[in-house]
Design goal:
Pathway: Carbohydrate degradation; glycolysis; pyruvate from D-glyceraldehyde 3-phosphate: step 5/5. By secondary structure, the protein is an alpha/beta fold. The chain contains 18 helices and 24 strands.
C-alpha cells in the first residue's frame, strides 16, 4: 500500500467519498492559472474567479491587442483591491506559431477525400479548396505523407472545427493536401500544426519583442510563457528581458509543445524557471498513447529539480458545459497525484461559458486528490534522488517538512527574501500549507532606491502549497529576536484570520537568524 502514490485505507476512505467537500480559505494546494478574455474580463467575473481559487492570470497575446489586454489587467487590479487576494500576471507570447487567417470570417466547409491547397499568398481569400498561411517556408519544411492539423484557435477537440490533412504533393510554394475528415472551419483565426516537423522561425518574433518591451515592461509581468524548443531559446529570451529594469526578476516558463522540446527537455529544465506541459499541441505531435508517459516523466523531473510545473488542457468540455466529463475529472486528479504545481485553464476561462464554475470545480478536484497524495513515499523518493551531502538550505527545508508532518503541524511558516527557501520547502510537498513571509529588501540601481519582495511573493502563487504574505518593509532585513517575534506574530494572526491556524495547533517555523538557519516547533495556546 505504501508503495502507491495513493493513500487509500478501507473502509474509512470508501465512506468518506460520500461526505461533502468542506470549504476552506485555501481551496487547494495546487494552484490554478486562468486565462482572461471575452467571458472573464469584467471586474465582477474576475473577482469571482479570485474567490473561486485563481492565483495567476494569464494574458494570451495570440489574439487581441495590447489595449484590450490592458483594460483586462486594470480590471484585474480592481478585483485584487476588492478581494484583497494576491494574483500574479503571466504574459503568454505567440512565438513561432502558424496561423490560417480567414479574412472573410465566413465558415469554410471541408469535405473528406477532397484536395486542399495551403498557400503562403495571404492576399488570396480562404475557400474550401485553398487556405492562406502566415509562413512562406511551409513547402520547404514538409514532404509527401506528412500530417498537418488545422483547428480553430483554442480548439477543444470535440467540435467539428478541426481537420486533419495529409500532404499529397508540394507544388513550388504551395502544399497540396488530402482532407482526412469532414470539418467546418468557423471564425477568423485557425492554428496550423505540422506533426514532428521543425518550423524555421525565431522563438521570439519581432511582434513578441514589441509586446514584451511595451506591455510587459509597463506591467512588470511576473511570468513570461515562452514557446521553447531548445535551452538556447530560454537563454535568448532571458538576455532580451534582462535589458529592462522592470523585467529583471521576471520568471521564464518554458512551454513544451512539440517533439523538439521533448528531446531537449533536460537542458530546457536547467535553464527555465518553470515548465508548462502544453498538452494541446503535444497531443498532436505525439501518438495519443505516449502523451501520459511524457507528462509523468516531465512532472517527475520538475519535482526533483524543485521547479514548478504546470499542466494544460484538462477540462476542455467545460468550455460549453457546467460539469467536466468523468475522464476529465480523473485527469485533473491524476495531474495532482503526478505532482503538478498548477493547472492552466485556457479556452475554459477565456471563451468558456462558465469560467468561475470551472475554476471552482478544478479546485475541488485538486483538493480531493491532495487528501490521498502519498507524501511519505514522495518525500523518501525526493531525499533519495537528491542524495548526500545535501546543500545546507535543502537539508533545512527537508528537515522542516519532515518535522511538520511528524508533529502534525497545521502550517509551516517560512521567512524568505528571495523566495528560494519557500520553494525548497514546497519541493518536499508538505501536507499542510506553507505561509511564505516575504521580507522586502532595499536595493538601489544608483539612481533610486526600491524595495524587492512583491515579485517574490506573487511568483510563489504558481507553486503548490505556497501562500505568500508580504512583510512590512519597515522591519529590518537583518533579523534580531525582537523582529522575528514581531513578524511571526503577524504571520500567525494571518493564519488565524483565515482559519488555517487554531488554538493548540502546532506550527513549524523556518527562519534565518544571523548566519544560522533555524527550524522550531511552536505549540499555540488559547
Amino acid at each position: 500500500m505504501h508503495s502507491s502514490p495513493l493513500l487509500l485505507e478501507e473502509p474509512i476512505r470508501m465512506a468518506s467519498i460520500l461526505e461533502p467537500s468542506k470549504p476552506s480559505f485555501f481551496p487547494a494546494m495546487t494552484k490554478i492559472v486562468g486565462t482572461l478574455g471575452p467571458n472573464s474580463r469584467s471586474v465582477d467575473t474576475i473577482t469571482r474567479c479570485l474567490h473561486a481559487g485563481m492565483s495567476v492570470a494569464r494574458f494570451d497575446f495570440s489574439w487581441g491587442d495590447s489595449e484590450y489586454h490592458q483594460e483586462t489587467l486594470e480590471n484585474l487590479r480592481d478585483a485584487i483591491k476588492t478581494t484583497q487576494k494576491l494574483c500574479a500576471v503571466m504574459l503568454d507570447i505567440v512565438g513561432p506559431e502558424l496561423h490560417v487567417v480567414n479574412k472573410t470570417d465566413h465558415p469554410i466547409t471541408l469535405e473528406a477525400g477532397t484536395l486542399l491547397v495551403l498557400t503562403p499568398d495571404q492576399d488570396k481569400e480562404a475557400t474550401s479548396n485553398l487556405l492562406p498561411v502566415n509562413y512562406s517556408g511551409l513547402s520547404k519544411a514538409v514532404k509527401k505523407g506528412d500530417t498537418i492539423f488545422i483547428g480553430k484557435y483554442l480548439f477543444t477537440g470535440s467540435e467539428t472545427t478541426s481537420v486533419w490533412l495529409e500532404v499529397s504533393e508540394v507544388n513550388e510554394d504551395d502544399v497540396v493536401c488530402l482532407i482526412k475528415n469532414d470539418a467546418t472551419l468557423s471564425g477568423s483565426l485557425y492554428t496550423l500544426h505540422v506533426s514532428q516537423i521543425r518550423i524555421d522561425l525565431p522563438t521570439l518574433t519581432d511582434k513578441d519583442k514589441e509586446v514584451i518591451r511595451t506591455w510587459g515592461v509597463q506591467n512588470k509581468i511576473d511570468f513570461l510563457a515562452l514557446y521553447t524548443r531548445h535551452a538556447e531559446d530560454v537563454r535568448h529570451a532571458r538576455e532580451f528581458i534582462s535589458k529592462f529594469e522592470n523585467l529583471k526578476q521576471t520568471h521564464i516558463f518554458a512551454k513544451i509543445e512539440n517533439i523538439e522540446g521533448l528531446k531537449h527537455f533536460n537542458e530546457i529544465l536547467s535553464e527555465a524557471d518553470g515548465i508548462i506541459v502544453s498538452r494541446g499541441n503535444l497531443g498532436i505531435d505525439l501518438p495519443p498513447e505516449k502523451v501520459f508517459l511524457f507528462q509523468k516523466a516531465a512532472i517527475f523531473k520538475c519535482n526533483m529539480a524543485g521547479k514548478p510545473v504546470v499542466v494544460t488542457r484538462v477540462v476542455d468540455s467545460m468550455t460549453n458545459n457546467l460539469r467536466p466529463t468523468r475522464a476529465e475529472a480523473t485527469d485533473v486528479a491524476n495531474a495532482v497525484l503526478d505532482g503538478s504545481d498548477a493547472i492552466l485553464l485556457g479556452a475554459e476561462t477565456l471563451i468558456g461559458l462558465y469560467p468561475v464554475e470551472t475554476i471552482s470545480t478544478v479546485g475541488k478536484i485538486c483538493a480531493e486528490a491532495e487528501k490521498v497524495y502519498n507524501q511519505d513515499l514522495y518525500f523518501k523518493k525526493t531525499v533519495k534522488y537528491v542524495g548526500e551531502p545535501m546543500s545546507h538550505l535543502e537539508s533545512i527545508a527537508s528537515s522542516a517538512v519532515r518535522a511538520a508532518v511528524k508533529v502534525k503541524a497545521s502550517v509551516i511558516i517560512c521567512f524568505t527574501s528571495s523566495g528560494r527557501a519557500a520553494r525548497l520547502l514546497a519541493k518536499y510537498r508538505p501536507t499542510m500549507p506553507v505561509i511564505s513571509v516575504v521580507i522586502p529588501q532595499l536595493k538601489t540601481n544608483q539612481l533610486r532606491w526600491t524595495f524587492t519582495g512583491a515579485f517574490q511573493a506573487r511568483q510563489s502563487l504558481i507553486v503548490r502549497g505556497l501562500f505568500p504574505m508580504l512583510a512590512d518593509p519597515r522591519h529590518p532585513t537583518e533579523f534580531d529576536a525582537g523582529t522575528n517575534e514581531s513578524i511571526l506574530k503577524i504571520a500567525l494572526d494571518h493564519g488565524k484570520a483565515f482559519g488555517v491556524i487554531k488554538p493548540h495547533d502546532r506550527v513549524v517555523v523556518c527562519q534565518k537568524v544571523g548566519d544560522s538557519s533555524v527550524v522550531k516547533i511552536i505549540e499555540l495556546e488559547d
